[in-house]
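C-alpha cells in:
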C-alpha cells in the first residue's frame, strides 16, 4: 500500500464503494483512491441489513431526482459494472410503492407530494378509495381517504449486489481496498492531511471522505468535527402467509407493491414470503454493536395492523428477523453530501437515514464531482450540503418512512 493517496475513503459499503467507482470512472480525475473498511464481510453494514428498495415518492425535488438517477443506475447496472465479462444482475423487482392516507392531513400531504413528483417526471398516480379497492382487492380500505401509487421507477433489488458491483468495478479501475480501521485523522489548520490506521500505518491524504455509515460521528470526531448522525435500530421481519395475496393485484401483472399503512407499518412481497417492519414506538440511539432484534414489534405493532388491513394477513407466521442500523441524521433525517466549510478537503457522505442504497449512486457521483471539480456538475446537491448542519437549518422532507 502507498504511503499516500489523493483520496482516502473511510468506509467501504455502498456509499464508500460508490464514491470510489465514480472517482475512478471519471476521466478528469487522475488521482489515487484508498478505501478503508473495518469489516469487509459487511455482516453488520447498513447496506447488508437493508430492505433495499427505491422510490420516487418524496416531497422534495432533490430526493425525487436522486432516486430517479438511482433507478437509472440500477436499470443499467450490468453494463456499467461489467468486469471481465461478468455483468452483475440486481434482480430488480418493479413492484412500486403504495402510500395509504387515512386522515385529511395525510391525504393533503400525498397531494402536495404528488405535485412535486409529477413536476419531476415521476410515474406516480393518486388513487381514490374505489380505484384503490379495484387495483388491490385484498385490502380493506374503508378508512382510507387517498393513496399514492408508483407505477414505474420504484421497487426493490439486491442490496449487497449493488455494493459489490460498485466495489468490483472500482477495484478494476484502480481503487485500492484494504481491511483496516481508521483510528485517527491528522489535521493541519483548515486541512486534513493524513489518517492513522489500526495496523499502525499512517497514510497521507489529499481528501478524506467520511462514508462510515452509523459511525459517521466517530469518524468526524477524529478530525475535530461534528455531524449529528447516530445509529438507530430497525427490525425487519420476514413472514409466511397462509393465503398469500401476491398475484391478486389488478395492476402491474398482479404484483403487489411495497405498502405503507397510515400507521407507518410497511410490507412487501419477498419471493414466497413477505418482508415487513414498523417505526419503533421509542427510537433512542443504540450502541454501534447492538443488533438484537426488537421481537415484540411484530406481535404488538405489525401483525395487528396488517390483519386489520387485509384478511390475507390474519394468518401469518414469522420465519426470520434481523436488526440493522439507520445512519440517522437527527437534524432532519436526510443525507449530508458536501465538504466541511472550514475544512474543505474533508467530505461528508452521511446521514442517509435508511435511504443510502437508493441514494448511493447520486451521492457517489456528487462526491466525485466535488473532489474533481470543486462543485457539482450534474445534480446540484447544495441543499443537502454540510452548511445546513452548521446553521441548524433542516432540509424538510415530508415523506420519511
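Residues out:
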Amino acid at each position: 500500500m502507498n504511503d499516500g493517496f489523493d483520496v482516502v475513503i473511510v468506509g467501504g459499503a455502498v456509499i464508500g464503494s460508490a464514491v470510489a467507482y465514480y472517482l475512478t470512472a471519471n476521466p478528469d480525475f487522475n488521482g489515487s483512491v484508498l478505501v478503508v473498511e473495518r469489516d469487509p464481510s459487511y455482516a453488520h453494514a447498513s447496506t447488508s441489513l437493508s430492505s433495499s428498495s427505491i422510490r420516487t415518492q418524496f416531497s422534495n425535488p432533490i430526493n425525487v431526482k436522486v432516486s430517479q438517477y438511482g433507478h437509472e443506475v440500477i436499470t443499467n447496472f450490468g453494463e456499467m459494472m461489467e468486469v471481465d465479462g461478468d455483468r452483475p444482475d440486481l434482480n430488480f423487482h418493479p413492484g412500486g410503492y403504495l402510500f395509504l392516507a387515512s386522515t385529511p392531513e395525510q391525504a393533503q400531504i400525498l397531494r402536495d407530494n404528488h405535485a412535486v413528483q409529477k413536476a419531476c417526471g415521476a410515474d406516480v398516480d393518486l388513487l381514490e378509495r374505489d380505484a384503490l379497492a379495484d387495483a388491490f382487492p385484498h385490502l380493506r380500505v374503508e378508512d382510507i381517504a387517498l393513496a399514492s401509487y408508483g407505477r414505474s421507477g420504484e421497487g426493490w433489488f439486491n442490496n449487497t449486489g449493488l455494493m459489490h458491483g460498485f466495489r468490483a468495478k472500482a477495484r478494476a479501475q484502480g481503487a485500492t481496498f484494504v481491511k483496516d480501521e481508521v483510528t485517527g485523522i491528522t489535521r493541519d489548520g483548515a486541512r486534513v492531511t493524513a489518517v492513522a490506521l489500526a495496523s499502525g500505518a499512517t497514510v497521507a491524504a489529499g481528501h478524506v471522505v467520511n462514508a462510515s455509515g452509523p459511525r459517521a460521528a466517530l469518524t468526524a470526531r477524529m478530525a475535530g468535527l461534528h455531524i449529528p448522525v447516530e445509529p438507530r435500530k430497525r427490525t425487519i421481519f420476514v413472514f409466511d402467509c397462509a393465503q398469500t395475496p401476491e398475484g391478486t393485484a389488478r395492476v402491474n401483472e398482479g404484483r403487489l407493491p411495497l405498502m405503507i399503512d397510515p400507521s407507518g407499518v410497511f410490507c412487501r412481497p419477498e419471493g414466497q414470503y413477505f418482508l415487513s417492519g414498523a417505526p419503533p414506538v421509542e427510537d433512542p440511539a443504540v450502541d454501534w454493536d447492538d443488533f438484537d432484534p426488537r421481537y415484540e414489534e411484530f406481535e404488538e405493532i405489525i401483525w395487528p395492523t396488517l390483519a386489520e388491513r387485509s384478511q390475507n394477513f390474519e394468518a401469518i407466521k414469522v420465519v426470520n428477523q434481523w436488526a440493522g442500523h439507520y445512519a440517522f441524521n437527527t437534524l432532519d433525517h436526510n443525507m449530508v453530501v458536501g465538504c466541511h466549510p472550514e475544512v474543505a478537503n474533508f467530505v461528508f457522505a452521511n446521514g442517509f437515514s435508511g435511504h443510502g442504497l437508493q441514494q448511493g449512486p447520486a451521492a457517489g457521483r456528487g462526491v466525485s464531482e466535488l473532489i474533481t471539480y470543486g462543485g457539482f456538475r450534474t445534480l446540484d446537491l447544495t441543499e443537502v450540503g454540510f452548511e445546513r448542519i452548521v446553521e441548524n437549518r433542516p432540509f424538510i422532507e415530508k415523506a420519511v418512512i
